[in-house]
Amino acid sequence: MNRKCKKIALITPSLAKGGLERVVVETAQGLEKWYDVTVIVMDTFRTDYPYAGRCLDLEISWEDRRIAVRFYNFLKSIVSLRKLQKKEQFDLMIAHGELTSFPAILSAMSACVPVVHENRLNALKDLQGRATNFLLRLFFKRGSVKKIVTVSEGIGKSLQCGLEIAPSKFKTIYNPFDMETIRSAAQKIPEGYEGIFMPSAKVLITVGRLTHPKAQWYLLRIFAELKQKEETARLLILGIGEMKEELLELCRALNLSAFDGIEEQVPGDTYDVYFLGFQENPYAFIRQSDLFVMTSLWEGFGNTIVEAMVSGTPVISTSCPSGPREIICPDLPEEAIVAKPNEEGSGVLMPTFENRFVGEDEPLSNVEKVWADTIYELLHDEKKREIFSKKGLKRAEDFRRESIVGEWKEMIELVLNVE
Question: Which of 87, 95, 136, 152 could form a disulfide with 322 if both were Cys (CB 3.0 to 4.6 A apart)?
């Protein structure tokens, strides 16, 4: 490789399943046309998003959450990155997420650009959250940080205010999507799952980790109400996470029959809710569904909303910070309160939920009732679903990989003062 070609390192915690990891690989593939690209992985314990280019593994695991072990691995990652920089002489390091950004900044011998995928300032109030916020304020003001990239405008505005850093240092670059690959993968349902999508069924789908921020318990409560009026309704939940047992228990309490993709191998066609775990090809499930639903309390961007749009499935989503509103209704002011269903964008933007777990004992809130009614109406209005499908396909084009990678190139050249 000619040394005149700038050397760019993209750093990721892993190449395992996750929106951040996919973004790193998509971006690296796009930047190869102009730069000498290396992907640095903290730990390749599993590879769900393979990268065909040059990839280096630091073999530093973050699975053990004990404070002493994490602190040791933090120091180890700083040392490893500094050694690698001395050897490779990178012109720029682009670090995705806090696990890579903090050690990259502290080890930096060249320009560094952290990429923020989550709104940590508002999301976490526990000890870990407060520590993360402190480190953000401490590290992001260092001289080696030439630019701070956020995956949504909402994250950028929150950080500007919370960190007291000049707006000029921030740049929002949305996540890239390979439209053709998604559409190709969406064409065929994996063998054994066809029975879920029988013509008479009304199928809802959500995709995301089973964690508190995704708030799938609200979706289960709403779905139980929906079933009172729409007996053919089915709910697919794709993803894994620590809240799975709580969600299964809630299904039992709400008298919803649930398929457990871990315990059972072949899904029948008589369940109400299907927990299908992680799927390598979620797009096929999304495309076959009638509605994509997101009930998150907060998001960094909302990758699955765009993936649903690309797949041609209409979207109904909470207006939580930060990404859904920007994707679905980009012209709606951030401060505008969504108190009722907003159908003016490329999907249906809905009121948000309280940030707390709600079980089966509490009656449905007014917000949950509005959700149930809106979903029911959409399921029975094929023309409206078709309109939102077309609007979604058009909006998704704004996130095409080629144009997003072009924004990355402009930012990189600005940082490195490339003429």
Answer: 152
Mean pLDDT of the chain: 92
CB 177 within 8 A of CB 399: yes
Same domain, 101 and 220: no
Full-model pTM: 0.92
Q: 13: exposed, middle or buried (C-beta count within 10 Å: 0-12, 13-18, 19+)? A: buried
Packing angle, helices 244-253 and 216-229, rounded to 10 = 20
Token pair belonging to 321: 């910070």
Q: Residue 370: what residue type?
A: V
Neighbours of 125 (CB within 10 A): 10
Short-list 226, 267, 216, CA closest to 246: 216
- Tokens 């990721």 appear where? 12
Return the structure tokens found at 350.
Answer: 């809905």
Q: Which two tokens stand for residue 369?
A: 């009732």
Task: Return the closest-CA partner of residue 340 out of 374, 307, 306, 384.
Answer: 374
Structure tokens at 348: 């249906």
**What is the spatial distance between Cα 330 and Cα 319, in angstroms, rounded to a whole number?**
11
Is 80 part of a structural domain of the chain?
Answer: yes
Give the domain CATH number at 325.
Answer: 3.40.50.2000
Please answer whether residues 288 and 248 qualify as being in contact, where contact means their C-beta atoms are separated by less than 8 angstroms.
no
* Interval 93-148: pLDDT, tens: 999 998 899 999 999 888 999 999 987 655 555 556 667 777 788 889 888 999 99
Which residues does 383 contact at the CB level (< 8 Å), separation at least 6?
A: none
Element (H, E) at 238: strand 233-238
